[in-house]
Amino acid sequence: MYLPTTVFSKNKATNIEFKYKNMNLGELERLIDVVKIKIIRDQKGTWSKGSTTYLNALFDEINEVKEELSSGKQCFLEDELGDILWVYLCFVHNLEVEGKVSMSRVFERSLIKYSERVNGINNGDCWDKIKKKQKIYLELEQSTFTSTIHQQNTDTL
């Protein structure tokens, strides 16, 4: 977990440093492993309707976080935030099982996207300008992907 350490001078925060404590990527990997087991279990049952089930559950969990934000109960808030993470991971994994996305590509895209934006604003660029540029590249990538799929389908006929 990230714990902020703030240095105050004249009642103003002048430096914020985040320390990484008590969590590593292995924990996220283990959570994803549990998600995969859960999705296999879901496929054997009748209650889950795949990604749609988890997409709807995300809205429920967000509302529960809203409630806990005003409660002042840190443990309950952390629990609900964990539920959002869980449901999100289940949603993305279901989309992967359904052949709609690659979970690793979702993570990779997010890392690239926000690294570029944060590095950009730290170098004086505008967030919206970076975002528009990324959108153009994404549209080009999608166009190329769509053309490739279309060509593959034409070749198999």
UniProtKB/TrEMBL annotation:
This is Nucleotide pyrophosphohydrolase. It comes from the Bacteria. Residues 51-118 form the NTP pyrophosphohydrolase MazG-like domain. Pfam families: MazG. InterPro entries: MazG-like_dom.
